[in-house]
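User: Hey, quick favor. My workstation is busy. Could you predict this chain's structure for me?
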Amino acid sequence: MSRMNDRVLAGGKAADGRSAVRRWLSLNLLLVFVPVAVGLDLVRVSPILVFGVALLALIPLAVLLSKATEHLSVRTNPTIGSLFNATTGNIIEILIALFAIRAGLLAVVKASITGSILVNVLLLIGLSVFIGGFRYKEQEFNRKAVGIASSMLLVAITGMAIPTVFGLTSRQPAESLSLAISLALGVIYVLSLVFTVFTHKGVFVVDRVADDETHPWSVPKAFGVLVLGTVAAAVLSEVLVGVIEPVSQRLGLTQAFIGLVVIAIVTNIAEKIAAVTYALKGKIDLSLNIGMNSATQVALFAVPILVLLGFLLGQPLNLVFSPYEMVAMVVSVIILNHIAADGDCNWLEGAELLTVYLLVITTFYFLK
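Assistant: No problem, here it is.
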């Protein structure tokens, strides 16, 4: 009987290994779109084709950058790993926004900021809670940790709401105010990292194990993938930003919609895959952690960097969002706070978050 059990276990491990190989091959096959996108851009083919291929190329890059970050993180202690995750978690979003700022597409940058927050708070967490809820009737999570994370999101949204209200009610420019508030948001982000990984690290789930535990990447391999992936992402970001205007005109979509929906979903694909995977394994804490931390990093880490870079590049980026963008962010955080208040969740609450996301993007589709 024990030999039979051993054979069953061995067969299961072999099947898992074959599954991992298939995932690896499918992911690496998509990397062929990286040089294809660059080549299509150089020969000046249809902007829509370039845009679509560049988006496809960003998907495997986002996953590889996430995997490299995770493998580097598990090679260190949880504290260093969490700090590393916090500083590298939004590489692609920052790169795309940087090239968009340089091109003067400030509306795209603001929309991508809004879109990243909405994707993480509504779509990522909504999918995780919804799909995980069919396997587990009730999913419990660390209410205290989620409460602290949601409070940080409220602080971030408040910081962005102040210059928005100022810009909508005053004729004075909001660039200087935006810079001052960005610095304040950056400070509270640093303080939140100290709180999370030093003084109160026992409250939080901070260590995310790399997906492939049996074959962890070496430090040189993980670091090399991170560097090369970042370079490739930078090249693709420039290609993508370069065709946003003609794609917007030909498809009849606003640049804000492209930034808020299309780019935000693609650049967060790795987090969505990881979050749903954890939810299916009954680790909804990790799913919520991914979504909330990613949204917080965008608002408190990426935003200050982009505002500062905008000033340095001579393209000042203010934090005056449209009323629709601000209302969408405020409502999404309030709904998430309400759902997370009792310390457990079910599939219906996930469906509610997804419904709010669909309502928001539908509204932005019709805005011209």
